[in-house]
Amino acid sequence: MAKTPPDSATDGAPSEGAVAGGSPLAANPSKGRATPSRAAQEAARKRPLVPDTKEAKARAKMELANQREKARLGMAAGDPKYLPARDQGPQRKFARDFVDSGWHLGEAVMPAMVFVIVAMFIPVQAVQYYAFVALWIFIFFVVGDMVITSIRVKRAARDKFGADRLEKGLGWYSAMRTIQMRFMRLPKAQVKRGQHP
């Protein structure tokens, strides 16, 4: 009796449900590949979405620098969106404009200190002494101007916004702005001298 020849599909070839290594394929025939191991899945999850390349780092650094420059310019221009908490609000803006509209002795504090430092190098004791004394007299007048400006700003703000709505620290805020040189103030001056708010 003749033997039936073996089926070609089963002669040395893997069955439909197995791969050459003996691992079964997934039940879904459309998948066409073995399910990845847990280690491979974990590695895929840990892989960063953005490639960690020099170009990506340089691009991120440039974007950060652009954002900082935009914030700096916005703060200098007095844009409320970029102002820190201590500079926000209509009363703070009023105080800044009030100070910037006038002249103040405190603007000359830094030049006066530079003058005294230079005078200290002059090998004449009388020059050094009188320069030091003049600086202290000048600082006394600066403090007086700070006190007067503080009182005037609070009085003007009280008339404009109401006594019950006056913010705390408005006088000190104004006084500290008087001792900054005009071009160094932040936010920058928005009014000209003599242009009272």
Question: What is the element layout, followed by pairings?
Answer:
Elements: H1 38-46, H2 54-76, H3 90-100, H4 109-120, H5 125-161, H6 170-178
Mean pLDDT: 82
Radius of gyration: 38 Å
Q: Termini distance?
A: 119 Å
The strand count comes to 0
Q: In DSSP terms, counting alpha (H) and pi (I) runs of 4 or more, how many helices?
A: 6
Oligomer: single chain
Major sheet characteristics: none
β content, as a range? under 5%
Which structural class fits the helix and strand makeup? mainly alpha
Provide the succession of SSEs: HHHHHH
Uncertain segments: 12-27
Helix content: 40-55%
- Describe the global form: elongated
Provide a compact summary of the structure.
With 197 residues, this protein is an all-alpha fold. 51% of the residues lie in helices and 0% in strands.
